Amino acid sequence: MYEYIKGEVTNLTPTQVVLDNQGVGYLLQISLNTYSKLQGKKEILLYTLYYVRDDVRDLYGFFTREERTTFQLLIGVTGVGPSTARLVISAMTPAQIVDAVTTEDEEAFKSVKGIGTKTAKRLILDLKDKINRIDEPDQNSPVDSAVVSSFKMELEEAHKALITLGFPPNKVAKALRKIRQEKSADTVENIIKQALKLMS
């Protein structure tokens, strides 16, 4: 419905923000992570998701597409509604959620209010094959899409090589995640070398 809304902040709380766009005030539900990014800003752009279920009609706002994708994946998990999903993305960054899923860290999810062992297990199981969709660049920062695409391909090649060499998928994913965040290697060969150091 709406890809994003850009406007002036007229009201901001830890759970909601009102953006004025050409005289129309949009009320968006937000996470604590997005709230912290909006401190001191007058005009902002938020990526949006319109949630409709029974008699519920809510517009959610996210500082990055990465956070929005994470939220979408979370509400797709059986038993996880938007309130719980917002708690998760308020307590954990997308990177931390990726790490928790890839390393099967139930305790990380259980540290979020309202999530017990059963839900933590379900989150890990349901998100395991979808978690790579979270790896999108921060759209609130200028990014060369060709560079991002090339780097992603090199990471995928390195991932295949490391799995073929017999390294545990969880360790490989965690090492590559760190390399991706820090941009500490720029070729497949260097990525593999760096990953081997991190897994040693």
Question: What layout of secondary structure does this protein have?
Answer:
Blueprint lengths: L3 E9 L3 E6 L2 E6 L2 H7 L4 E11 L2 E7 L2 H11 L6 H10 L2 H9 L3 H5 L6 H11 L17 H20 L4 H14 L5 H12 L1
Antiparallel strand pairs: 1-2, 1-4, 2-3, 4-5
List keywords for this structure.
200 residues, alpha+beta, OB fold (Dihydrolipoamide Acetyltransferase, E2P), DNA polymerase, domain 1, 5-stranded antiparallel beta sheet, 5 strands, globular
Q: Count of helices?
A: 9
Mean model confidence by pLDDT: 86
Biggest sheet: strands, sense, closure? 5 strands, antiparallel
Spatial order of strands in the largest sheet: 3-2-1-4-5
CATH topology of the largest domain: DNA polymerase, domain 1
Number of domains: 3
Structural class, from secondary structure content? Answer: alpha+beta
The sequence of SSEs as H and E is EEEHEEHHHHHHHH
Oligomer: single chain
| CATH secondary-structure class of the largest domain | Mainly Alpha
Radius of gyration: 18 Å
Low-pLDDT ranges: 141-145
Task: Give the tally of β-strands.
Answer: 5
Helical content band = 40-55%
If classified by CATH, what would the architecture of the largest domain be? Orthogonal Bundle
Strand content: 15-25%
CATH superfamily of the largest domain: 5' to 3' exonuclease, C-terminal subdomain
Tell me, briefly, the overall form: globular
CA distance, first residue to last residue: 47 Å
